[in-house]
Design brief:
By secondary structure, the protein is an alpha/beta fold. The chain contains 16 helices and 15 strands. The strands form five sheets. The protein has a seven-stranded mixed sheet with strand order 10-8-5-2-11-12-13, sandwiched between helices. This is VWFA domain-containing protein.
């Protein structure tokens, strides 16, 4: 049975770790079709804010200014992302470049300089390439380490039509000047910048979906630093960006269970509308002890968030921030439940970057303060309506507060809330 197979595989993972690691992944993180890239020990990226360490106001301001220029990021969201670098000092982005990524059921969000745009049909690879480039640009702006691991090595087209190995593993934005001590989180990636990342993503997808091998490789990189990460209350972010199911689902489940024994926060970025694939990942989430954050494309996530919190415009910066990895769990709740008034205040403060009154004490003052804060913020593209809108719909915000307050005050069987 499937459960018996998973149990057997899990036992082998525990009993034969050293042998499996040596067999699956030589120390160089060698791929079968590319030159060996020697692993380089890299210290965990220094946190933006850390108890006992004096943060550089200049560096922090510079990062926030750089982020503020990207996709109309709200100032509060910029601060929240900078703060998340402390909790999540390293990120691994597994990029599915299998042949099925050439399917044409992808969705791209095309924006102009004013933030206007629309959703257009595209290949899955084009959709994922946009996300990877935006993540890379954010990592560069924040000097945040992000390692990109392709599932399959692919050659890149150079000048005069010459094909050269593109490699398979890459690392961005780590400056090598971390002040952290102790065990290191290793990388097997070749250093590259935004231009180099664009060349890598310009390759054509091809091959299979060896997600089990990719996850076990991450285990081998993160596990030596697990004690250090736990001692500092930190986690590594692991993003699995894929359009399908792994080559061997039972062994992948066991590998994912092994990964979740480590201090990691796992995000799955789906690049498909295939019902069977979506159902597989939803069922997988239910089978794991630790939750997965499963994200759809901008439009799909906007629909889910709107169903729970219709007062919030789910703009592209929010989608990118959640993909990048946010420490505050309110970002995970947006598509899961209607926020309580106190949570609405906390989230609006995170988004807008200003203190707000407590709506449970004075809802009118809270709404007025939100309205004032929105005056200084440019509108954002709403994928649901294809129009520019304020980040927060004050009318719908008021309605949700009224509905919650009505529920809170209703104690009798004849209570009716319109």
């Amino acid at each position: 049975s499937r459960s018996r197979a998973v149990a057997c595989i899990t036992q082998r993972l525990h009993d034969n770790r050293a042998e499996r690691m040596a067999s699956l992944y030589p120390p160089a993180c060698e791929s079968s079709a590319t030159p060996v890239v020697q692993g380089v020990p890299v210290q965990v990226a220094s946190p933006a804010v850390q108890p006992g360490v004096t943060e550089s106001p200049v560096a922090n301001t510079s990062a926030q200014e750089a982020m503020g220029k990207l996709n109309n990021f709200p100032p509060g969201l910029v601060k929240a992302m900078v703060s998340s670098l402390s909790a999540f000092p390293v990120r691994f982005f597994v990029v599915d470049n299998s042949g099925s990524m050439q399917a044409t059921d992808g969705n791209r969000l095309i924006l102009d300089a004013q933030g206007r745009g629309r959703m257009v049909q595209a290949t899955r690879w084009e959709e994922l390439s946009d996300t990877v480039m935006q993540i890379g640009t954010m990592a560069h702006a924040l000097n945040a380490r992000v390692d990109f691991h392709l599932l399959n090595p692919r050659p890149v087209l150079r000048g005069r039509g010459r094909l050269e190995p593109a490699g398979q593993f890459f690392t961005m934005a780590h400056d090598g000047h971390s002040t952290d001590e102790g065990e290191a989180v290793s990388t097997c990636g070749q250093p590259l910048d935004v231009v180099g990342l664009r060349q890598v993503m310009a390759t054509s997808p091809g091959g299979t979906t060896p997600l089990t091998e990719a996850v076990m490789q991450l285990v081998s990189l993160i596990e030596p630093a697990a004690a250090q990460l736990r001692a500092r209350g930190q986690q590594a972010v692991v993003v699995l960006a894929t359009d399908g199911m792994p080559n061997d689902p039972p062994s992948f489940l066991a590998a994912l269970q092994q990964l979740q024994l480590l201090p990691v926060w796992t995000v799955v970025r789906l690049c498909t509308d295939d019902d069977g694939v979506v159902r597989y990942w939803s069922d997988l989430d239910a089978s794991l002890e630790a939750p997965l954050e499963v994200l759809d494309d901008d439009l799909g996530e906007a629909k889910e968030v709107h169903a729970k919190n219709p007062w919030l415009t789910y703009g592209s910066p929010l989608q990118l921030a959640r993909t990048f990895g946010m420490h505050d769990k309110l970002f995970d709740l947006l598509d899961e439940a209607a926020l309580l008034p106190s949570q609405m205040r906390q989230f609006c403060e995170l988004l807008l970057g200003v203190p707000l009154p407590e709506p449970d004490l004075d809802a009118a003052a809270f709404v007025a303060a939100v309205r004032d804060a929105l005056q200084t913020m440019p509108p954002v593209f709403d994928p649901l309506t294809s129009r520019l809108k304020p980040w927060i719909d004050v009318h719908l915000l008021t309605r949700q507060l009224d509905r919650h307050n009505g529920v809170a005050r209703c104690f009798g069987p004849n209570c009716v809330i319109s």
